[in-house]
């Protein structure tokens, strides 16, 4: 791929995680050449999407099932047989790198997209200083930026006063940083449970706070087809209406997995209602009880990364975008991949084929 300060192409894909690579693959199957007709931009230093930034103790054996990319069998690799005892960030990076090479998907790295704006009948994509390309113009933009760079931290009175350590899932430094500390884990999803497990082994004390009572179901790991359909339908309805997307766990609940059973046996699933405020040395409960803490882990989920799309006027005041079948309403050349009902790895793969078909029709290819 040529590397001038500016590029012009038919399609720009922002993000080389699961959703972005799946779209690039299907565009290639429809005859669009990567590096010429399609330019893929990624902010990471190498392959792997957000997985390359996850903490070292996270393994594929301890997470939800990761579905293969379309055409991944051509690489001779599959996540179904991937090692479950190595850091997931290493395994996924290796597998994605092999995938990009096998399917000749050229990715410009590192590129941090700062804004997407209209440029006559095209779009202009501007990037941060130090990126591998300064700007790109294109007829079509596919934003597959994901959520990892946009952790959700709820408003909490006094949070800025707390003198202890505060971290989000994206910045989690590993359990060793919490050795001997009194720690609060906030959040009701799988990441929160993982932190309760890891940190609970080394902390002096670990408390679990959630906004609502967690709901557990009897499925070991995977969602049932029915539960999955309900989750997708709720996400799709919110996306079409342009509302902020609900958290997945609020829709699906948590599986009664080996992790959950281990936490129950260790007595670490005693959930506490969300505290009312923070102080320099801890938190105050809604019953006005002070709890001393040294650290708080905000495992409170993520928002879709859409800040770069604000110049187009498609992001409403609530932070939502009206999206139907992956296409932004009122912007025929703008698509979101991995957004809302496409958030899971299997749904993003299926949706990528539909998106690629719509793009090639729009281009007249």
What does this structure look like?
The protein has 365 residues and is α/β, with parallel strands linked by helices. The protein folds into two domains: 205 residues, FAD/NAD(P)-binding domain (3-Layer(bba) Sandwich), CATH 3.50.50; 103 residues, FAD/NAD(P)-binding domain (3-Layer(bba) Sandwich), CATH 3.50.50. 24% of the residues lie in helices and 22% in strands. Strands 1, 2, 3, 4, 5, 6 and 19 form a seven-stranded mixed β-sheet that branches. A five-stranded parallel β-sheet has the order 7-16-8-9-12, covered by helices on one side. Strand 14 and strand 15 form a beta hairpin. The longest helix is centred in the last third of the chain and has 19 residues. The chain is globular, with a radius of gyration of 21 Å. The model has no long low-confidence stretch (mean pLDDT 91).
Low-pLDDT segments, ≥5 res: none
What is the CATH class of the largest domain?
A: Alpha Beta
N-to-C series of helices and strands:
EHEHEEEEEEHEEHHEHEEEEEEEEH
> What is the residue-averaged pLDDT?
91
CATH topology of the largest domain: FAD/NAD(P)-binding domain
N-end to C-end Cα span:
22 Å
**Approximately what portion of the residues adopt beta-strand conformation?**
15-25%
Name the CATH superfamily classification of the largest domain. FAD/NAD(P)-binding domain
Overall structural class, as computed from helix and strand content, comes to alpha/beta
**Main sheet summary:** 7 strands, mixed
Based on CA atoms alone, the radius of gyration comes out at: 21 Å
Task: Tally the beta strands.
Answer: 19
CATH architecture heading of the largest domain: 3-Layer(bba) Sandwich
Helix fraction by DSSP (H/I, runs of at least 4): 10-25%
Number of domains: 2
Q: How many distinct helices?
A: 7
Task: Identify the overall geometry.
Answer: globular
